[in-house]
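JOB MANIFEST
job_type = single_chain_structure
chain_count = 1
residues = 154
[input]
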Amino acid sequence: MFLILLFGLFITSCSHSDEENSDSSRPLMEREVIQTDHAPAAIGVYSQAVKVGNTIYVSGQIGLLPETGVLAGESLDAQVRQTIRNIEAILQAGGFGLEDVVSAQVFLSDLADYQAFNDIYIEYFEQNPPARMVVEVSRIPRDAKVEIMVTASH
């Protein structure tokens, strides 16, 4: 019985200690939703971006024209360039620029477009490019050829 009581006190002490070290004891970082009319409105249930502290998380963007909500064109070139313009507009709305991008996730509808994509991408990230991954996916919303999601930090 004594061992059970002792074990119970130990468990209570440990769980109390965990509560003291929980997230509630850390100051909460402000979470700010970033929205701009200079990029396409969300076509789903998501924010264009969310800023937490000195980091901004930009949702996946495709080459939609902000004014019309239609793709900038059928070509990979037109879609990649518009996608990056959309990302840049969202970053600027949050006080960031392309130079602040630290990570990019790229989704291509056809990995055969990898080199053509790189040829355009390097124009925007010529020096100190961000960490990046590129994958082929079976389908992108609106049957776009590319979707890009970035994280930027000051």
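[summary]
Residues 2-20 form the longest helix (19 residues).
Helices lie at 2-20, 76-93, 114-124.
exit_status = 0
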